[in-house]
Amino acid sequence: MEELTMDTAFTLTKRRSMMTMTKARALEIQADQVAYYGRSYGPRIAELVAKITTADALPDGEHDVATINRHIPRGGSIEHLIQSHNLRPINQGGG
């Protein structure tokens, strides 16, 4: 067995804490979130998310979440789009 040093402890911790997700699951989550935000901000949010989604460049299967995040925007990335494009809720004349 390998001696436990600070370097090996860091590597083991990093390996254990790496979160993964499938491309399909990330796309499901994205679709749910686009539908959720679309109810408030209209169809423009779907267009903006589609513009920055590069899921086709990502092979099917499981990937670390950092890679998924670069290709399939969800959550905070969608909220950032809303803010950066100054979208307003449709009931307030936005969308």
Q: Helical proportion?
A: 55-70%
Q: How much strand content do the residues show?
A: 5-15%
Give the H and E element order.
HEHHEHH
Cα-to-Cα separation, first versus last residue: 60 Å
How confident is the prediction overall: mean pLDDT? 86
Strands of the widest sheet, in order across it, are 1-2
**So what's the overall shape?**
elongated
Query: Largest sheet, described in full?
Result: 2 strands, antiparallel
Would you tell me the structural class of the helices and strands? Answer: mainly alpha
Radius of gyration, in angstroms, nearest whole number = 18 Å
Low-confidence stretches: none
Number of strands: 2
The number of helical segments is 5
What do these coordinates show?
- The chain has about 100 residues and is mostly helical.
- The chain is about 60% helix and about 5% strand.
- It contains five helices and two strands, in the order αβααβαα.
- The protein has helices spanning about 5-15, 25-40, 45-50, 65-70, 75-85; strands at about 20, 60-65.
- Strands 1-2 form a two-stranded antiparallel ribbon.
- Helix 2 runs antiparallel to helix 3 (about 45-50).
- It is elongated and about 60 Å long.
- It starts with 5 loop residues before the first helix and ends in an 11-residue tail after the last helix.
- The model has no long low-confidence stretch (mean pLDDT about 85).
